[in-house]
Structures are given as structure tokens and as C-alpha cells.
Write a structure and sequence with these properties.
binds zinc ion; about 30% helix; binds D-xylitol-5-phosphate
Length: about 210
């Protein structure tokens, strides 16, 4: 089964409840947290996640594109996150951050940016629930899919335990989704493809 996680970065934030309910046939809800330091954009913080938690039962897939993620993990768990993904490039002690996330009983994910090689994740695969392979430079929705990033997936899949989720994020549509699942991804994030579609439910179905 492929886990579809619509990214609300492409939703209308003035109509967020409507736009979250519109994707309720998907599996998770992807929430992009950006701090203006790790990436050149500022998006969603803890109070918004608290409000989202009240209006949906979908698992909240929180993608932290922030420096010093360890300072904010507890707050995002209390806000209602079910999966917390941090960036390899943003932390010093990877194992400590994974342990911290798992100590709260939520799933731990680690992401790598396009220029980060796949092998940096190998030492941590047994501790992780998910690896997020970015297929665009993090920071903005609506960018073009980078196929060479997806080509990192087979090496990770080959070394991974059988329950590891490999997620891709950036430029995912029905066509690039097929490339990623062929390489071994089993979770797809999509923002623009889902939210800019005239038929959201069909767009979600087309990714499966
Ligand atoms: C980019 C974010 C993505 C973004 C994807 O930094 O992590 O989740 O919303 O948007 P699309 O699917 O439009 O490329
Ligand atoms: Zn994301």
C-alpha cells in the first residue's frame, strides 16, 4: 500500500478546514514547517497544528524544515503530530533526535536534501520509521521533480528493514509517482498536483 500525504502548503490557508476535509480520502496530512533559516521561507508553526488536530482524525505528518528541530519536537507532539520528520542536515546528533521523537510514542522520520547522498542514512535505518527523500530543494511547493534524487531510493530500500517507509516529496504527480514507487518509495507527498487539480479526489486516486 502506498501512503498518500497531501501537502497543505498548496491549500488556501484562509479556507484550511475546507481544504483539509477535501483530501480526507488520502492517508496522512503533510504539514510543512519552515523557519526562514534552514530554508528561505516561513510557513506553519505549532499553534496551527493545534487547530488542525481539532478538525481531522488523519495522521499528521509533520515535516520540520527548521534548524535545531530538537527544541520543538515536544511542542509538535503535544500539538498532535503523529509522524515527525527532521532534516539530517539540520542536526548534530542524529541518534539523539530519533530517540527523542520515539520517546513520545510517535513515528520518527529523517529527510535528506537533493545534494545529500543516500549513504548518510544507512547507519540510522534500524532506528528510523521513515526516510524522506526530497525530490526538490526544500522551501517551496510547485517545483520541478528531480529524477536523480529518486535514484537514491533503491540503495536505501535495499538496506532497510521491511517496515521502513520511504517517502518522496517535491514535484510528485501521477507520472513522477510511478517513477518513485518503481524505485521503492511507498509514501508520496503531493501539494500542487492535488490542490491545483479540478478534481481533488481523482488526483489522490491517480497517485495510488
Ligand atoms: C517543499 C515541501 C513540500 C511541498 C511539495 O519544501 O516540503 O511538501 O509542499 O509541493 P509540490 O508537491 O507542489 O512539489
Ligand atoms: Zn514537505
Amino acid at each position: 500500500m502506498t501512503i498518500i500525504s497531501p501537502s497543505i502548503l498548496s491549500a488556501d490557508f484562509a479556507n484550511l478546514e475546507r481544504d483539509i476535509k477535501a483530501v480526507n480520502t488520502a492517508d496522512w496530512l503533510h504539514i510543512d514547517v519552515m523557519d526562514g533559516h534552514f530554508v528561505p521561507n516561513i510557513t506553519i508553526g505549532v499553534p496551527v497544528v493545534v487547530s488542525i488536530r481539532k478538525i481531522t482524525d488523519m495522521p499528521l505528518d509533520v515535516h520540520l524544515m527548521i534548524e535545531n528541530p530538537e527544541k520543538y519536537i515536544e511542542a509538535f507532539v503535544k500539538a498532535g503530530a503523529d509522524i515527525i520528520t527532521f532534516h539530517y542536515e539540520a542536526v548534530q546528533d542524529v541518534s539523539a533526535v530519533i530517540k527523542q521523537i520515539k520517546s513520545f510514542g510517535v513515528k520518527a522520520g529523517m529527510s535528506i536534501k537533493p545534494k545529500t547522498p543516500a549513504d548518510v542514512v544507512f547507519p540510522y535505518l534500524n532506528e528510523l520509521d521513515m526516510v524522506l527523500v526530497m525530490t526538490v530543494e526544500p522551501g517551496f511547493g510547485g517545483q520541478k521533480f528531480m529524477q536523480d534524487c529518486a535514484e537514491k531510493i533503491p540503495a536505501i530500500r535495499q538496506k532497510a528493514h521491511e517496515n521502513l517507509i520511504i517517502q518522496v516529496d517535491g514535484g510528485i504527480n501521477a507520472e513522477t509517482a510511478r517513477i518513485c514507487t518503481f524505485y521503492g518509495a511507498n509514501s508520496l507527498v503531493a501539494g500542487n498536483y492535488i490542490y491545483k487539480s479540478s478534481d481533488i479526489k481523482s488526483a489522490i486516486a491517480s497517485l495510488r
